[in-house]
Specification:
This protein is mainly beta. It has one domain: Porin, CATH 2.40.160.20. 9% of the residues lie in helices and 65% in strands. It has 1 helix and 9 strands. An 8-stranded antiparallel beta barrel has the order 1-3-4-5-6-7-8-9.
């Protein structure tokens, strides 16, 4: 097992060292402008945040950026705040344009960790434990390790799971702006 891990590590290092590839790890965070949609759902947006870490594997003008984020989402439904907490794992494919500008698209897998209403009552049973979403965005990877960007994330399926109201439909919609900083980079 140790020999296999060492061989894989050396192979990865060789690819990065002798090609146009680079690998990086960083931290990111930003603002969420969250809302929800659904049949018969009267929702207004709320402002919250997301924070976490990312990895970036970049080959010339294409990159793959998996992330691990804690994200506060939700909406104000009929005057009552719904506060949802997720651990999200977006896997973004980044298409690089000149000067570090990039377009992003990919899936996001979310796990609901907490759900409360405006009174602080637990309402997690009204929501599914997972959320499959799609994400589209644009950003700029500056030469000195800074990332700046915006992303729109929307649920692909209904997240409502209310026993009291089987017609309850809830889909997350979140616009994000973020800053990231590369802590470690190997390669170009």
């Amino acid at each position: 097992m140790k020999k296999t891990l060492l061989t894989l590590s050396l192979a990865l290092f060789s690819v990065v060292a002798f090609s146009q590839a680079s690998i990086g790890i960083g931290l990111k965070g930003g603002a969420n402008f969250a809302n929800a949609s659904g049949d018969n759902l009267n929702a207004d947006g709320i402002t919250s945040y997301h924070v976490g870490a990312y990895g970036l594997i970049k080959l010339t003008n294409i990159g793959i950026q998996p992330e691990l984020l804690f994200s506060k989402q939700g909406a104000n439904v009929d005057g009552n705040d719904i506060d949802l907490s997720y651990v999200n794992i977006p896997v973004m494919l980044k298409f690089y344009l000149p000067a570090g500008l990039n377009l992003q698209a990919g899936p996001q897998f979310g796990m609901l960790t907490n759900a409360k209403d405006g009174d602080g009552d637990d309402i997690k049973e009204s929501f599914k434990n997972s959320d499959l979403s799609a994400a589209l965005g644009a950003g700029w990877d500056a030469p000195f390790g800074l990332q700046v960007g915006a992303r729109y994330v929307f649920s692909l399926s209904d997240n409502g799971d209310s026993i009291d109201d089987p017609t309850f439909e809830y889909k997350n919609k979140t616009f994000q702006i973020y800053l990231g900083y590369s802590l470690f980079k190997l390669g170009n």
